[in-house]
Amino acid sequence: MKSTYTYNQFYITTDKTLLNLDVIEDFICKESYWGKDMTRDLVVKSIENSNLCFGLFDGNPEVNSSAKQVGFARIITDFVRFAYLADVFVIEEYRGRGLSKWLMETIVSEPRLKGAAFHLTTKDAHGLYEKFGFQPIDQPENRMLRPLKIEHIYEAYKQATDK
Length: 163
Hints:
Layout lengths: L3 E4 L2 E4 L7 H11 L8 H9 L3 E7 L9 E10 L4 E9 L8 H11 L7 E3 L6 H5 L19 H13 L1
């Protein structure tokens, strides 16, 4: 099931076939603080393996091939209890227009995610996420994390593609 949303001339879709992988790769790999070690192949694989991706466009990409992708977010979820929000961005020239708020409002209002506990990691956008019900983790001493090891991801990905 694909969802679409509109706001003025802006458009959000969960249709992965409409995503502009060049825009997503450029932002994640070159501009974000969290994805500087990523390659295009890993960005593409992360999108393929995500349950929901939200592409934010200036214009409707379903009817206008020149619609410009200006934002993105992806969700990994079981559609019941758990949802992890990742790779959220709006490109710089489109910031300050309320688009990140609209993107977040769209994500947390997605019917398939209603009631799920959302998790995310952020260095700098706490204020945005708090507006949508996110809060610091209660009792962090009861939670654990297995840290990312990008070199292991590359090794496993290479082995899988060499077969």
